[in-house]
Amino acid sequence: MSDQYTAASGTSPSLTEKLTTLREFLNTQKSVMLVTVSEDGSLHARTMAISEITKDWKFRFVYDNESHKDAEVKNDSHVNLNADGMTQNKGWVSIAGKATRSTDRELVKHLYTPTLKAWFADKGDGVRDGSPNDPRLTVLEVKVDEIRHFHQVKTTLGTITDVVASTITGSTATPGEVRTITGEEIASAWSKGELKEP
Predict the structure, then answer these.
(1) What are the C-alpha distances in Å from 118 to residues 52, 114, 133?
(2) Where is the General stress protein FMN-binding split barrel domain (predicted)?
(3) What is the pLDDT of residue 86?
(4) Which has the least CB within 10 A, 84, 101, 113, 116?
């Protein structure tokens, strides 16, 4: 069952088109919000920079395993990633998935950038120094359950016109398309070698 907005703006482009436009959107965002579940069921969100989106669409982040998010992911692997580009007329995305954590040093080194050191203070113990070998640096990997991406189609002026016209006529404004992608779709296409983006 979908709400009237989703029904009015929903379309069925190919998986390749959906993923290509989604990656383009994510490339315009400096960060996403990562939402985790605490032990008492409350939700916590914080801004995170994406370290990598793998070819099979897993999202990877480097984070501090001494933080609250580490305990929360251990307690409940369900997470949400979201980004809002509506103020720039670029759309939005909400990604539901499950997170796993890895302390594999080779993976940490693969994702490491010098700017990460700014977020990991040197503790002066010769170990926790913000380098790729710092044991606090951990990789959070999110496997997709479902993606909902509002792909903005109309320009800012087109969106305003659409909203005004819809207000007058009583119809639903559709300045873009709500696209749903499931983890099963991604996994199936990947296993068949069909997950290709330009």
Answers:
(1) 19, 8, 15
(2) 18-172
(3) 83
(4) 113
